[in-house]
């Protein structure tokens, strides 16, 4: 049974929780009535919430602790206020929420925003934690060739409240209090460092003790590698974990799959990542999607180990998640194992990260708003 595992494979545990209220997978397109009201999630909680300090705390508690999605639920507010607030403030950033449960227990959520654009998040229940993977843009301007989100092009940046409300909406639909979500990964649609202000706005509310009161160690921001953004994030001192989508050990290979590699070299990116580590002392995750014949040779593993020398990093090897029309193919299991073993021999900690939600198009890099149809593999 024990075949000399030279690296750790992190298979996701079977679902232990989750389930709840789902709408049918083939729900109709939403008819969107524009909502001109202000997002209640917009102000710095609780100071700018309407009402006096004590009332603001009450509202923040309803939103972030009890997960209220309707003003009428806030029964301890004076009736006059409860009736006046909805005219000016909206609680939900979404006109429609649709859920697509995967056989493995994860659930993909498709959100229709108030202007009719759509975005997605994924709920990932694990034995010991509940994680939500959220988006920060509609589509993505970076255009990585192996990523379905990149293929769909760029719609727009999500606002801070739209980023944050994905967590609250997922919690609500899973029958959880928002504060039961203890882990957030910014690994859905979009490039977080290309929507810096809104992403950090949302992260600040995740951390705020009156809002989601999360630990920065449980928030991971994944980036394709924008050096200026990484340095800014270090300077802003939010303390979140950084994941870098490297995917290649040299610039030539990287340029074939990641258009932004024409603009930023690996050396520049790694300098910024080292600066991030120096500031935060948090181990950096290096993401590496295994693409057949592109980046999966053993010598490339050794090269990767060389460029990571001296950095406290952990490599996540991601088996490629197929999507219709993808111009690349994934490496086979054996190749992935050989690559991982080569990294281990070179002293680099490595994990193979199997994605969840593949059957409903919810896995890494599959989010493209068209996963309502089963993928023909
Ligand atoms: N824009 C950010 C975060 C979103 S993507 C980034 O690129 O880091 C989350 C991770 O999934 C990234 O490492 C991304 O490169 C990877 N990914 C994208 N498409 C994939 C696919 N089809 N299969 C496996 N991983 C993929
Ligand atoms: Fe954008 Fe990340 Fe996809 Fe590249 S991998 S296109 S940066 S979402």
Describe the structure.
With 377 residues, the chain is an alpha/beta fold. It folds into two domains: 17-215, no CATH class; 224-366, Aldolase class I (TIM Barrel, Alpha-Beta Barrel). The chain is built from ten helices and 15 strands. The strands form three sheets. The protein has an eleven-stranded mixed beta sheet. Strand 14 (313-319), helix 10 and strand 15 form a beta-alpha-beta unit. The protein is elongated. The structure holds S-adenosyl-L-homocysteine and iron/sulfur cluster. S-adenosyl-L-homocysteine (SAH) is lined by residues 144, 146-147, 187, 191, 222-224, 245, 287, 289, 318, 320-321, 323, 364-366.
